[in-house]
Amino acid sequence: MAYKGQRYKKKFNPKLNKSNYRNSNQESEIENYYQESDIEIKKREKRECNMKYEEGNFIQTGHIFSGNINSSDSIYVEKIVDQLIGAFDEHAREKKSITSLDMLSISRHFFVGDALTWVDEFAISKGIDRLEYVSEAYRGGDTNKFKTAFSPEEFLDAFLARFKPVDHVINVIDKIRELKQGSMDLDTFKNKFYKYVSLLNEEELKIDFVQFRLLKHFKQNINYNHRGVTSSFKNLDDIWDYSVHGM
């Protein structure tokens, strides 16, 4: 079952040697470690583990998602979908196919907490029981039903249905509204702006209200010396094309 990854396609990234400093830095690192929440610790540990993964760039560099109700990472659901598509496609190109079991295995690299629990629950809902699979494989039985239990689209749709908030668009717009240029140069400000914009999918970006709000907040939050030019901007392409170089 080769996966082309089309459904959600988007357009669019010296320590000091002196012992007195070393001890101070170590104490600071230890203090920061104990200030981490359990979820932050799990995310950090998974990132460290993923960096050692040799088969996929998406897994090595991917964002880690918890989905916990008290976590702020629900805003990254579309980013996680992009990562999963990339990782699925990378696997399919390397192995010439991708199975349901492969998708479950890949997704576990990106998830901790409630999201990781959901993966196991989703697998069970599709008739995939790990012990049953191992037993069947050990006996040389037919394991095809485990490999074709669901498609990539089914998995991604179920993930979004479970973790994407109904007010996702507003949450992203609010993040952009809070983003001020301040001391940032233009390129840095634009990159941060588009980093948030990328958290919306293509369908959401086509909504007139969304286009209007994104453009409005960019114009309001850019420094005054740029406003003579940006006041005439009509769409996001105008922002993308804007540069102080060559002016």
Task: Describe the structure concisely for a colleague.
This protein is mostly helical and 247 residues long.
* C-alpha end-to-end distance: 51 Å
Shape annotation: elongated
- β-strand percent reads under 5%
- Cα-based radius of gyration, to the nearest Å: 22 Å
What count of structural domains?
Answer: 2
Largest sheet: none
Count of runs of 4 or more consecutive helical residues: 15
What is the arithmetic mean of pLDDT?
83
Class computed from helices, strands and strand pairing:
mainly alpha
Give the H and E element order: HHHHHHHHHHHHHHH
Number of DSSP E strands: 0
Query: Which residues sit in consecutive blocks of at least 5 with pLDDT less than 50?
Result: 1-30
Please describe what this structure looks like:
The protein is mainly α. It has two domains: 65-165, no CATH class; 168-241, no CATH class. It is built from 15 helices and no strands. The chain has helices at residues 19-35, 38-50, 57-61, 77-95, 100-107, 113-125, 130-138, 144-147, 152-163, 168-178, 186-197, 202-205, 208-221, 227-230, 236-241. The N and C termini lie far apart (51 Å). 23% of the residues are buried.
